[in-house]
Design brief:
This protein is mainly β. Helices cover 3% and strands 35% of the residues. It is built from 1 helix and 10 strands. The strands form 2 sheets. Strands 1, 2, 3, 5, 7, 8, 9 and 10 form an 8-stranded antiparallel sheet that branches.
């Protein structure tokens, strides 16, 4: 096996996640790298409570502003260029699994988008698990963290 297959390729996009007012300890980083015909995505999160599964999606709009009393409502719905049902939206990702200490790590591949397709959009963590069937977004609860995806080059701080 080629050793280069074992390394995460250089990321070209990144989002810094921050929690809402009720989750100020929640922070994280999402890195996106081109790979094959899609994207390798690495998410590192701390302060994600309660322990368990949390919905994790790319949302259509690159804004993490609060609308009234709804955290991160400006992020819009799930990124979906093809008008398909959940869980087949381009932005539907595997859930994050947080440990008892609030940490979560996810590495996944998707062929639903390339990193450049989602620069300028947002990543959202939800309060509960995604049921992978409810419409339009999996009934995964409120939005508790958000980050805007920006272009990135290694070495950039």
């Amino acid at each position: 096996m080629d050793d280069s297959m074992l390394c995460f390729p250089p990321p070209v996009a990144r989002a810094f996640l921050r929690g809402d007012e009720t989750h100020p300890q929640l922070t994280g980083e999402v890195l996106l790298a081109p790979y094959g015909r899609g994207t390798l995505l690495l998410a590192r999160v701390v302060g994600l409570f309660p322990a368990g599964f949390h919905g994790f999606h790319i949302h259509a709009v690159g804004s993490c502003a609060t609308g009234g009393d709804v955290p991160f409502s400006s992020a819009g719905g799930h990124y979906d260029l093809h008008g398909v049902l959940h869980p087949w939206h381009g932005g539907d990702l595997p859930p994050l699994l947080s440990a008892a200490n609030g940490s979560a790590l996810l590495s996944t591949y998707t062929d639903r988008f390339r990193p450049q397709d989602v620069i300028g959009r947002s990543v959202v963590i939800h309060s509960g698990p995604d049921d992978f069937s409810s419409q339009p977004a999996g009934n995964s609860g409120g939005r508790i963290a958000c980050g805007v995806i920006e272009a990135f080059s290694p070495g950039q701080s």
